[in-house]
């Protein structure tokens, strides 16, 4: 599954830690699908 958030995408070019951005995205998705709270984050590449 691919997740996307305009708010979090806006932070990509800042000094934010990518791992923190991933955590924020997971937390945001968890509000819609609670099971995402236990999901692992995988970055392709």
TrEMBL record:
<protein>
    <submittedName>
        <fullName>Uncharacterized protein</fullName>
    </submittedName>
</protein>
């Amino acid at each position: 599954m691919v997740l996307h958030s305009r708010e979090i995408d806006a932070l990509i070019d800042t000094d934010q830690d990518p791992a923190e951005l991933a955590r924020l995205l997971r937390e945001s998705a968890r509000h819609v699908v609670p099971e995402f709270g236990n999901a692992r984050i995988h970055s392709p590449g």
